[in-house]
Design brief:
By secondary structure, the chain is an alpha/beta fold. Helix content is 40%, strand content 16%. The chain contains 14 helices and 14 strands. The radius of gyration is 21 Å and the shape is globular.
C-alpha cells in the first residue's frame, strides 16, 4: 500500500521569492462592489484612437498574422526612433518588446548576473524589485525623502560598491510623480562611470510631464548615453496597455545582446498590432494629451487635498502620492484606510506599503491614479466630498 503525501513543488529560489500582486484582494472587492478604480494605471484617458483600432483590423485582414522580425516591425521602429531625443537608429538601437515589463526583464537579464547589485530609488515601482529578484541580483535601495521625494547625493554614493552592475531608474516616477533633474542625472552618471555600471531607465511616462518641465532622457546625458538602456512603452501614452507594445533603446553593442535575450523570452510582440501602431498611433498629438493629463492631475489634486490629504503635486506621470496622516492621525495604516475608503465611498486607491523596501515606511501613503475620464473624476469628487460632508 502506498500513501500519498502532499509536497510543495520544487521551484527555483528566484521564483519562490516572487510575491503575488499586493492588490489582488482589494481589486476583487472593488469589482464585486462596482467601485471606481483609481488604483491601477490602466488608462481611462487618453482613449485609443478609432483609426488605430481600424488599422489593427486591416492588418489582420491583410494577412499580417504571422511572426514579425524579432527586433520589431521596421516601420514601427522608424516611427519610434523619430520621436526620441536624440533620435535613435531604428536598425541598430531599437528593439520592440512585449510591453515595458518584458523590456525591463530583458534589460536586467542582459546586464546582471546572480549576486550582482542593482541600485534603485525607494519608494519605487513594485515590479522593479520583482524583476531584480528574478534576475538573481541584489537590490541596494537609496531612500527618497518626503515631501518632495528627492534623494541625498551622499546616500546615493554610499549605495555603490564593487559589486554594482546596474542602476534602475524611473522618470517620471511611479509612485512619486518625480521627474529626475539634469543635476540628479549628472550625479548618477558620475557614479555609474566610476563604478562601471549600466543605467536602466524606465521612461514610459515621458509624454506626461507638467508645469512647463521638459523630461530629460538618460540618452541626453553625457556619460549615460553610452552606458544607458531606455525602457519605453506606448501603453499609457496611447492607451493601448492590452496591446503590449514596448521597446528598448541602447547603443548597438548592447542592443545585440538585448535582442538575443528578447528572442529567448518572447521572440516578438504581436505582428498586426505593431503594424497598426507604426501606421497610425505615433501621429497622435502627445503634447495636447500631456496638457489634458495635467488638467486631470489638478482636478484629482484638488479633490484629495480638500478631503484632507497632504500631496506634493506630481511633476509627471499619472499618479498622485498622498500622505493620509492628517486624516487618520495614525489610527489606520494605508491598507486599512484603503479598505475604509472603499467601504464608505466606493473609490479604490492603492496602499503604498508595497512601494517601499520597508513596507512600514508606506503606512501613511496611498497612490491615486488620475489618468481617467474627466466625468469619472467628477463622480469621484461627488463621492469623496459628499462622504466628508456627511462626517462633519
Amino acid at each position: 500500500m502506498t500513501h500519498s503525501t502532499t509536497r510543495r513543488p520544487a521551484v527555483s529560489s528566484r521564483a519562490a521569492a516572487l510575491q503575488a500582486n499586493s492588490l489582488s484582494d482589494l481589486l476583487l472587492l472593488a469589482r464585486e462592489r462596482g467601485a471606481i478604480d483609481l488604483a491601477l494605471g490602466t488608462p481611462g484617458y487618453p482613449e485609443p484612437a478609432p483609426d488605430l483600432i481600424e488599422a489593427a483590423h486591416e492588418a489582420m485582414r491583410s494577412g499580417r498574422n504571422q511572426y514579425e522580425h524579432p527586433s520589431g516591425d521596421l516601420v514601427l521602429r522608424e516611427r519610434i526612433a523619430a520621436t526620441l531625443r536624440p533620435p535613435a537608429d531604428p536598425e541598430t538601437e531599437l528593439t520592440v518588446t512585449v510591453g515595458a515589463t518584458e523590456a525591463l526583464c530583458v534589460a536586467l537579464l542582459s546586464t546582471v548576473d546572480p549576486g550582482d547589485e542593482v541600485v534603485l530609488l525607494d519608494p519605487g515601482y513594485e515590479q522593479f524589485r520583482a524583476a531584480i529578484a528574478l534576475s538573481g541580483a541584489i537590490p541596494r535601495f537609496v531612500p527618497l525623502h518626503a515631501p518632495d521625494w528627492r534623494f541625498d547625493p551622499d546616500e546615493l554614493a554610499a549605495a555603490f560598491t564593487s559589486r554594482t552592475r546596474a542602476v534602475l531608474l524611473n522618470s517620471p516616477g511611479n509612485p512619486t510623480g518625480r521627474v529626475l533633474t539634469r543635476q540628479e542625472l549628472d550625479w548618477i552618471a558620475e557614479l555609474a562611470e566610476r563604478w562601471d555600471a549600466t543605467v536602466i531607465c524606465d521612461e514610459v511616462y515621458g509624454s506626461f510631464v507638467f508645469d512647463g518641465r521638459e523630461p530629460t532622457s538618460v540618452t541626453e546625458v553625457p556619460g549615460l548615453a553610452g552606458r544607458g538602456i531606455v525602457v519605453g512603452s506606448l501603453s499609457k501614452s496611447h492607451a493601448i496597455s492590452g496591446w503590449r507594445i514596448g521597446f528598448l533603446r541602447a547603443d548597438p553593442a548592447r542592443t545585440e545582446v538585448l535582442r538575443r535575450v528578447h528572442e529567448v523570452t518572447t521572440l516578438g510582440a504581436a505582428a498586426p498590432l505593431q503594424v497598426a501602431v507604426g501606421l497610425k498611433a505615433l501621429s497622435a498629438d502627445l503634447k495636447a494629451a500631456g496638457a489634458e493629463m495635467e488638467r486631470r492631475r489638478d482636478q484629482a489634486l484638488e479633490i484629495f487635498t480638500r478631503m484632507g490629504m497632504k500631496i506634493t503635486p506630481a511633476e509627471g506621470g499619472c499618479f498622485l502620492f498622498a500622505d493620509i496622516s492628517p486624516l487618520t492621525g495614525g489610527r489606520l495604516d494605508s491598507r486599512a484606510f484603503a479598505h475604509e475608503l472603499l467601504e464608505r465611498t466606493g473609490v479604490l486607491v492603492v496602499p503604498a506599503g508595497p512601494c517601499f523596501a520597508d513596507p512600514a515606511r508606506g503606512g501613511q501613503y496611498v497612490r491615486i491614479a488620475f489618468n481617467r475620464r474627466a466625468e469619472l473624476l467628477s463622480e469621484v469628487e461627488r463621492r469623496i466630498l459628499g462622504a466628508r460632508s456627511a462626517d462633519e
